[in-house]
Design brief:
single chain, 698 residues, alpha/beta, DNA polymerase, domain 1, OB fold (Dihydrolipoamide Acetyltransferase, E2P), Rossmann fold, 4 domains, seven-stranded mixed β-sheet, seven-stranded parallel β-sheet, 24 strands, globular, coiled coil, DNA damage, Helicase_ATP-bd
Length: 698
């Protein structure tokens, strides 16, 4: 049998798996014996020792043995079967709401019984509700106690724990006879102190009673570490292979800096050292004959857009077109306005393509892109529609790219794909994010991208002071807004609702608008929310940006893309309802000028523990990367990524927060494995990714 044959053995090899059972098991992602063995327990139960009934404690999983004293059907609010069990140290009740006549008849007085469950306080003292139990039949004794801890597996409808344990026991027998191949040579990874793959899997499915269960569950046991390391190496290999596939394409060399030098000379400020460093990295990438794949991270207000402009001007100078795509019209409009301000003096027209554009203007823009007279276009999802064709697309810039699906990003890249004498040519790709990405996520989810960080703010910016206040302080907060606006600055008031419904959010914002208009009669107040037409929203935002309005009431639509340097005060109500990343993005709307800015977070009591932790982080730091790391700890990687594709973090055993320290070594092992042992790459990818290495094609 082949050394990696566990993955080629279907589950119907096991006793008890017919077509119906196999279909149910596929819901858990279980298709073969290897899948089953890597489907690990999330907790363990100790069924190796008997606890006297007189020593029972509530809500502690235990095994008891005794005799059935009585079994009666009782009628109360719900019909139930009550069985009394005694062992000489005490008596306890078993209660069943779902039962059959045969079950009641089996619980005959005097029969030996063994019960497993968690007793809880009930009407008759401690009770076991629907426990697992075994009864001795005739003169047969009860079966021996378990020798190992009992695993509890993630399951689904129609698949019981008993079924999973039975199938896993059979699979472990196959494992001993056909151990899986060790795919990471000891020359690449010192695994001394770690068990073999066979021993690790056996330990995780069948730990002994004296094994440190807490270490197994916390991922600190050598058996878990053995599997985590291999899985992380496989994920890094998937990223590296995907990157190699992308780099195999040809791309135009874009090296000119004359246009950007002219832009830089006209700016009323100097670039920060971080901006200059990142621009140099982009220029080096775009001067290569293969496509740039670079992620630029920069906290709110760090100057990412100007860095993107440098890349765009290099492409335009070389005779190529640029497409900049943003997830919302508001953010896209902000980019369009910035680029027009910078590029119009250079004689470059910035074209616009979004859902709100009229049919005639859309046709004109599409024609200009197709014939090459349009050098640069800024837009939203409208950019990758079939009607949009480019003459010579050389650079795509995608902002807040985690909000786009994989296929949407690919569709934009494909618009610049064509055959040349060098092979297939594709555009360079620049990805921007103002959402600082924790290092572990950057290495795992964006591991195929080179990463640049703009880690320096423009000079003169002051850290934002953040205060956390109960809702009862609302009148004083309104007074503070009045004082700030009367002094010549501007303010935001952000309304948040748990409901995702734009209609409900709009209603809440309108109610606040009416309240604050009445409370602040001397101020001009504007309102924007997601239900407004784009034109009306833009007009109201423009009145606030120009200083005609002092206070802007808004929903979270202003999270990104709003830049009003004179705004120095931000109020967020129901702040406890938002995640850290969103709180940080919203706070970044102030502090964009030279004046001291403030953010007031209003909360409603009682605060949950997570709510308290989130608001404390916001109060204590303005560093987006610190906030991102804390957010990852609080929410976990899956929720942190939100709209990204579900396959992006399909770790079965590794945990990005818990196993952060292993990420760098895993990347190094993956690099060496590709170079020194390429024949082991595909088996590793098959074992862990099931062909999923294409899962996040940028």
């Amino acid at each position: 049998m082949a050394s990696d044959s566990l993955s080629s053995l279907p589950l119907n090899r096991l006793k008890g798996v017919g077509p119906a059972a196999a279909e149910k098991l596929t819901k858990l992602g279980l298709h073969n014996l290897e899948d089953l063995l890597f489907h690990l327990p999330f907790r363990y139960e100790d069924r190796t020792r008997i606890t006297p009934i007189g020593s029972l404690r509530p809500e502690t999983g235990v095994v008891i043995e005794g005799e059935v004293m009585a079994a009666d059907v009782v009628f109360g609010r719900r019909r139930s079967l009550l069985c009394k069990v005694a062992d000489g140290t005490g008596m306890v009740t078993l209660r069943f709401y779902h039962f059959t006549a045969a079950q009641k008849n089996n619980l005959e007085r005097g029969r030996p019984i063994r019960v497993y469950g968690e007793p809880r306080p009930g009407a008759a003292g401690l009770e076991f509700y629907h426990p697992e139990y075994q009864i001795a039949h005739g003169h047969q004794p009860l079966p021996p106690l378990e020798k190992a801890l009992t695993p509890v597996y993630p399951t689904t409808d129609g698949v019981s724990q008993k079924t999973l344990r039975n199938l896993t026991t059979q699979a472990l027998a196959y494992l001993q006879a056909h151990p899986p191949r060790e795919l990471i040579p000891s020359t690449l990874l010192d695994q001394s102190g770690l068990p073999s793959l066979t021993d690790a899997l056996t330990k995780l499915h069948n730990p002994r009673p004296d094994d440190p269960v807490n270490l197994l569950l916390e991922g600190q046991h050598p058996a878990v570490q053995r599997l985590v390391m291999e899985e992380m190496v496989a994920h890094q290999l998937g990223m590296l292979q995907k990157r190699a596939g992308q780099k195999a394409f040809h791309a135009p060399r874009l090296t000119g800096t004359t246009l950007f030098d002219r832009l830089q000379a006209s700016l009323p400020f100097a670039l920060t050292g971080a901006q200059q460093r990142v621009i140099a990295e982009l220029m080096k990438d775009m001067g290569q004959p293969h496509p740039m794949l670079r992620l630029v991270q920069g906290d709110v207000g760090s100057g990412k857009t100007l860095v993107a402009a440098a890349a765009a001007l290099a492409a335009i100078e070389a005779g190529y077109q640029v497409a900049l795509m943003a997830p919302t019209e508001l953010l896209a409009e902000q980019h369009r306005d910035n680029f027009r301000q910078w590029l119009s003096p250079l004689g470059i027209e910035v074209h616009w393509l979004a859902g709100s554009l009229g049919a005639k203007a859309r046709r004109e823009t599409n024609a200009a892109l197709a014939d090459g007279s349009a050098n640069i276009v800024v837009g939203t999802h409208a950019l990758f529609q079939d009607a949009v064709q480019f003459h010579r697309l050389g650079l795509t810039i995608i902002d807040e790219q985690h909000r786009f699906g994989v296929q949407q990003r690919l569709a934009l890249r494909e618009k610049g794909r064509f055959e040349t004498r060098h092979g297939v040519q594709v555009p360079h790709q620049l990805v921007l994010t103002a959402t600082p990405i924790p290092r572990t996520l950057a290495m795992s989810v964006y591991g195929d991208l080179d990463t640049s960080v703009i880690d320096e703010m423009p000079p003169g910016r002051k850290p934002i002071d953040t205060l956390v206040l109960p809702e009862g302080r609302r009148p004083q907060v309104i007074e503070r807004i009045n004082d700030a606006c009367q002094a010549g600055t501007q303010a935001y008031w952000v309304c948040t609702l748990i409901e995702e419904s734009e209609e409900l959010q709009a209603q809440a914002a309108e109610a606040t608008y009416e309240e604050l208009q009445a409370a602040l009669p001397d101020l001009t107040v504007e309102l924007v929310h997601g239900r407004m037409k784009a034109k009306e929203k833009a007009e109201r935002m423009a009145r606030f940006s120009s200083g005609q309005a002092q206070l802007l009431i808004a929903t979270t639509v202003i999270e990104v893309g709003v830049d009003v340097p004179n705004a120095t005060l931000m109020v967020m109500e129901n702040a406890e309802r938002l995640g850290l990343a969103q709180l940080h993005q919203l706070r970044g709307r102030v502090g964009r000028g030279g004046e001291q800015s403030y953010c007031l977070l209003l909360y409603k009591s009682p605060l949950s523990l997570t709510g308290k932790q989130r608001l404390a982080v916001m109060r204590d730091t303005t560093d987006g990367f610190v906030i991102a790391e804390e957010d990852l700890k609080l929410r976990g990687p899956g929720e942190w990524l939100g709209t990204r594709q579900t396959g992006d973090l399909a770790f079965r055993i590794a945990d990005l927060v818990r196993d952060e320290a292993l990420m760098e070594p895993a990347r190094n092992v993956a690099d060496r494995l590709l170079q020194e042992c390429p024949s082991l790459v595909d088996p590793l990818l098959r074992r862990w990714l099931k062909g999923g290495q294409d899962y996040a094609d940028i």
